């Protein structure tokens, strides 16, 4: 289980506990976190689960694969160096305390 913090563009935040083998995207959907659309259901095709990993993050996240990189070029909100697809971030105890920022829009 990992505690994940989703920071919204208006400055508020939602903190939820997510169990493996879910993803950061799935954790948002299961807990009704606004701001994650996830139209493709997690197959790294839609880009509507875009998040910005907190700049101070030191937790181990998987390397970005080519498909994720390609999709991130087409997201509705600007791509930044910290951009990731939350459906490609698996939850484990190793990322307990992860903070992600939600973009202004996903579509
Ligand atoms: S849910 Fe579609 S790319 Fe992540």
Automatic annotation (TrEMBL):
Domain of life: Bacteria
Cofactors required: [2Fe-2S] cluster
Xref: SUPFAM superfamilies: 2Fe-2S ferredoxin-like
UniProt keyword annotation of Iron present: yes
GO molecular function terms noted in the UniProt entry: 2 iron, 2 sulfur cluster binding; electron transfer activity; metal ion binding
GO annotations of cellular component type: cytosol
Family: Belongs to the adrenodoxin/putidaredoxin family.
Protein name according to UniProt: (2Fe-2S)-binding protein
Protein species of origin: Streptomyces griseoviridis
């Amino acid at each position: 289980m990992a505690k994940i913090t989703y920071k919204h563009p208006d400055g508020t935040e939602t903190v939820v506990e997510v169990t493996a083998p879910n993803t950061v995207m799935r954790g948002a959907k299961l807990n009704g976190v606004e701001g994650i659309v996830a139209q493709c259901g997690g197959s790294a095709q839609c880009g509507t689960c875009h998040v910005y990993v907190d700049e101070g993050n030191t937790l181990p996240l998987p390397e970005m694969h080519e498909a994720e990189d390609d999709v991130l070029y087409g997201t509705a909100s600007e791509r930044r160096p910290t951009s990731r697809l939350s459906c490609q971030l698996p939850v484990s105890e190793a990322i307990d305390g992860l903070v992600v920022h939600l973009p202004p829009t996903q579509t």
